[in-house]
């Protein structure tokens, strides 16, 4: 009896060890590390809770075990080299490949077994999301404070208006008294005799003071001419112009928060004359996988649902069926409102400034800034302003001829560039002899003020 009990206890211990081992297959994975690895390697094609390009991966370990009786070894093989797994004749691997339109999954031979265990642990037990900064709450608090301040300001304005009305009433009463006094004086004989000697018409007044009148008219004509000239000079100058676009696009989120390089979307700015408006397929490169906004930054007055709704507008324009993960072929052009537009008689080449003048423009711009916060790190910002801080893009500068000329007069040519150093060597030597050793070559010295450079 004692022997039976001893063996019974050993059996229980063995079973408990086996169960604990089976339950801890994924305790060896770190879900937090897995989350980082998942974001780096998987989010372009997968999400935990829905199908994107590939299937939803939430609970994939349990699902695979229940539906296909496959363990994690199969997942390791699939993730590291799914192509080799399919080539080996694995039935389920080929079924998955056929099911998802023969879309070839990337191979990840660089991931270690531990990395894959971390990822699988994340798909099985994702850690709770850290509470994002409640920008909406902050915005609400800001709105409450703004409402309180507005109420105080309104109360102050009401008091000022009451005081002003009292003052006006007092002034009107005082004027009434003065008018009565003037009426009495008008009726006196002394004033009647004085009035007979005064000028009683404008023509007589002008005849007496004709030179003064002509001078005033000439001065008014001069002011009017200056006003018309000044108005003509500012035609086509739209600094601060920030039109509403058909799809809300925040450069602060894309270029600021997510650090997306300007030239990823505006690729022709570096090698072409014009910096084109990106086509919808450029948007879909990212938003085919990013179907809803989950970022921490939220502009005051908006919420995540608003940004997600704008992404759906991109899908509608591109003809993308999110449920089927396929294009329908029905597209709708997006009618963007152009912000920066040079006149037809002006030649401006983006490549010339972005490539040849990049370092020179950045250095010259930063040298003029007294506040370090105003300095720039990308050449685009010299003309377009700090786009990465703008929710709604606006024209940051005047873009007048004088503005361009001033830049050409103050921007030094980059002589560290091997081509410029050799090409302008003789000019540099000549300027040193003429103006001294410390002289610098600015853009105007190499033809930057020639009319034919910009007008043709």
Could you please describe the fold and organization of this structure?
Among the domains are: 22-124, Cytochrome Bc1 Complex, Chain D, domain 2 (Orthogonal Bundle), CATH 1.10.760; 154-193; 400-456, no CATH class. Helix 4 crosses helix 5 and helix 14 crosses helix 15. It has 22 helices and 2 strands. A hairpin with a 4-residue loop joins strand 1 (320-321) and strand 2. 57% of the residues lie in helices and 1% in strands. The protein has a two-stranded antiparallel ribbon. It has 456 residues and is mainly alpha-helical. The model is unreliable at 1-8 and 11-27 (pLDDT under 50).
Briefly summarize what is shown.
This protein has 456 residues and is mainly alpha-helical.
- Number of discrete helical segments: 22
Distance between the termini: 110 Å
From the coordinates shown, what is the CATH architecture of the domain at 22-124? Orthogonal Bundle
CATH class of the domain at 22-124: Mainly Alpha
Question: What is the tally of beta strands?
Answer: 2
- Strand content of the residues, in percent? under 5%
**Pairing-aware structural class of the strands and helices?**
mainly alpha
Radius of gyration: 38 Å
InterPro entries: Cyt_c-like_dom, Cyt_c-like_dom_sf, Multihaem_cyt_sf
Keywords: Heme, Iron, Membrane, Metal-binding, Signal, Transmembrane, Transmembrane helix
GO molecular function: electron transfer activity; heme binding; metal ion binding
Signal peptide: 1-27
